[in-house]
Amino acid sequence: MESPDAGEDGSPIYHQANPEPRPDDAKHKEREFRKKLNREARDVVSDSIHKGVKLIVHRPDYDSANEQEYAGLSMELMPIVREIARKTIPLLEHEMSAEFARNHYYGSKFQADSVAYRDFKYFAKKRPPTECPSLVIGLRVDESASMSAFGRLEAAKRAAIAVYEFCRICNIPILIYGDTADVSRLEQMSIYAYTDYDKPDPNDRFRLMGIRGRSNNRDGMALRIMADRLAAASQQTKLLISVSDGQPKAMENYTGSYAAQDMQQTIAEYERKGITFLAAAIGQDKDVISQIYGSERFLDITNLNEFPAKLVRIIARYV
């Protein structure tokens, strides 16, 4: 009987166990993933004040110049990131085996050391046998034009690299999105999906080099889209960090108290769904950002050089 594993001349045909996807297949999957992100994002804002705003979610590409830029920026960061991760991993292992799950608003055991975080999660409760502690991170980067000034853009890139690499080492799912508004009348809101835990790619680190100052900022819409993604995640602790240098301002009339109220309502809505918000202010509008987010969610980043390490250490506290 003729073997199906032989060619026409009788020579054996070798089967690759895990064949690499063909370039066309990879491009098709990337397009489908981008379409999925667009559908979901538009659906999230369809019942909000942002309904009707023309939105496009981009999946930025990268090139050799991005790879070189990443190598230069990451060189000094990685020793610090690895050291923080080295100290964090044992905590992850301990938490996985611990009898009590920490960071709850109520429970049978009071954790005095949690009071310093002022998030009211001061209690631990008995963990069911099947429950595992877990953390998911969302990092939102404001890509308004003003981010190009005073070294803020490079600080944001370095922070994104540090957070991404820390989460990668510690096996923490990470979502890093940038956003801007009013690029054109046909694209009133732009989201840039640099890294996404639904489609992890080692080359995402190079996509991060596409972060840049662009146009205006519609913060409430960006927060809503990212918070909704995190709310649907299965992890227990869901942390959304916004890196911004100024108050929200976009056309038409998305500014002042109207924009601030939208952001505050979005924060309140998604906090009820288990999202923890932090705002890292790296610009001139720190007082306004603090008022919008509340002092308990506000990080005053005065020294931009220390920002990446400071942000990673703050994330490590939530492990």
Name given to the CATH homologous superfamily of the largest domain: von Willebrand factor, type A domain
CATH class of the largest domain: Alpha Beta
The helix-strand sequence is HEHEEEEHEEHHEEEHEHEH
**Count of distinct structural domains:** 2
Strand residue percentage: 15-25%
CATH topology of the largest domain: Rossmann fold
**Distance N to C terminus:** 61 Å
Runs in which pLDDT lies below 50 for 5 or more consecutive residues are 1-8, 129-133
Q: What value does the Rg take, in angstroms?
A: 22 Å
Spatial sequence of strands, sheet with the most strands: 1-7-6-5-8-11-12
Q: What class, by secondary structure content?
A: alpha/beta
Overall pLDDT level = 86
Q: Helix coverage percent of residues? A: 40-55%
Strand segment tally: 12
Overall geometry comes to globular
| Main sheet properties | 7 strands, mixed
CATH architecture of the largest domain: 3-Layer(aba) Sandwich
The total count of helices amounts to 8
